[in-house]
Amino acid sequence: EAGVAQSPRYKIIEKRQSVAFWCNPISGHATLYWYQQILGQGPKLLIQFQNNGVVDDSQLPKDRFSAERLKGVDSTLKIQPAKLEDSAVYLCASSRATGAGRILGKKLFFGSGTQLSVL
Amino acid sequence: GQQLNQSPQSMFIQEGEDVSMNCTSSSIFNTWLWYKQEPGEGPVLLIALYKAGELTSNGRLTAQFGITRKDSFLNISASIPSDVGIYFCAGYTQGGSEKLVFGKGMKLTVNP
Between chains, do A103 and B50 touch, taking CB under 8 Å as contact? Predict the structure, then answer.
């Protein structure tokens, strides 16, 4: 079974530029998450999708971050404009639908992440 | 927001030694997950715990869901060099909108 795919692996941009990350979840996983992991910290949830609807975006800085999951499969996360403090690893994760099989839905599987450096 | 206190923050051990780490919270959690993250990779799920008092093993790893539902621990027995990495605890808060919250991680170094 293929895992969560993310691209690019690395990105270096200057502040005020824009950047986009792409994620393809595990086949059949209805729930998709974007996490931000700052160096030395645990991952922090930015946004959670159930199919193509947003379940939780309470910690997403909406003035500069946006995310979409148009067809309920792939997702993109965009930052515009980027700030120095956005330097982090952006992790995508997926899980089975939380409604059907609560226990299975709680197991998140992560991609390798995109390491973003904002200069 | 919810916070998980993970300790210790780092450990340096010799190959073959056992290691323990724990995670505590001021809030009740209804699920605990333990992840391992290696450099340049995303976290990989090691063990999931769903009931207070539950003790679960995965090879040389053993984890327990604390009876108070506010803590969990992970033990690694007979460590080997490939155990090197950062170990994260994560938990789902009880009730309402469940959200997975992560600890800050414990960096493990194993000397051959």
Answer: yes
